């Protein structure tokens, strides 16, 4: 039984219209049906992955983070053009973004030595994440991140797409 069906049944039993259709409250797009993500690191790899996620309904990148102003602003502008909104905002500091309560997760495309530090801080705020390879520069970093992920119950995916390509096998 779905949550929506349960609540509708409970409202009927109570004799009051406690549940309104989401479209009446939110104009068709509901917050619970939208996954709000941030892209951290707005270089070429981020473009290749993030812009391909556009066809997935219910996924919206609401923040573009990069220390280089031109990269983050161009990336946010490009995403806003795709979404036909101004939902994506540019940020210079990832720490400001991962602390946002309306953010569900992050996609990390930073230089290699920043993968674990960014993921560690994001996990501290309970953000789910996708991180590109290589994961880090030291096993002690990876172990510390693994402990933090388990402690916070964060979903973590490590991207290794090249490893399945013919030339890398």
What would you say this structure looks like, in words?
There is one protein chain. The protein is of the alpha/beta class and 169 residues long. Strands 3-2-1-4-5-6 form a six-stranded parallel sheet. Strand 2, helix 4 and strand 3 form a beta-alpha-beta unit. The longest helix is centred in the middle third of the chain and has 15 residues. The chain is globular and about 40 Å long. About 9% of the residues have low confidence.
Features:
169 residues, alpha/beta, 6-stranded parallel beta sheet
List the helices and strands and how they pair.
Blueprint: H1 3-14, H2 22-26, E1 35-40, H3 44-50, E2 59-65, H4 69-83, E3 89-91, H5 94-98, E4 105-108, H6 115-124, E5 128-132, H7 139-152, E6 156-159
Parallel strand pairs: 1-2, 1-4, 2-3, 4-5, 5-6
Helix pairs in contact: 6-7
The low-confidence parts are 11-26
Give the strand order, joined by hyphens, for the main sheet: 3-2-1-4-5-6
What's the helical proportion of residues?
40-55%
* Sheet of most strands: 6 strands, parallel
Q: Quick one: how many beta strands? A: 6
- First CA to last CA: what distance? 44 Å
Average pLDDT, all residues: 83
Computed CA radius of gyration, to the nearest angstrom = 19 Å
| Overall geometric form | globular
SSE succession: HHEHEHEHEHEHE
Share of residues in strands: 15-25%
> Which structural class do you get from the secondary structure elements?
alpha/beta
- What is the tally of helical segments? 7
């Amino acid at each position: 039984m779905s949550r929506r069906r349960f609540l509708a049944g409970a409202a009927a039993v109570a004799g009051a219209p406690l549940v309104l259709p989401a479209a009446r409250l939110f104009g068709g797009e509901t917050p619970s049906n939208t996954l709000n993500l941030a892209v951290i690191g707005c270089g070429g790899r981020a473009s290749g992955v993030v812009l391909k996620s556009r066809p997935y309904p219910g996924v919206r990148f609401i923040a573009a983070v990069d220390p280089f102003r031109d990269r983050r602003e161009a990336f946010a502008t490009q995403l806003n053009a795709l979404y036909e909104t101004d939902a994506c905002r540019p940020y210079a500091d990832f720490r400001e973004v991962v602390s946002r309560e309306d953010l569900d997760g992050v996609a990390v495309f930073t230089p290699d030595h920043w993968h674990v530090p960014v993921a560690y801080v994001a996990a501290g705020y309970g953000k789910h994440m996708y991180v590109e390879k290589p994961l880090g520069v030291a096993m002690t970093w990876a172990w510390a991140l693994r402990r933090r992920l388990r402690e916070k119950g964060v979903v973590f995916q490590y991207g290794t797409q090249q490893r399945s390509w013919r030339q890398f096998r």
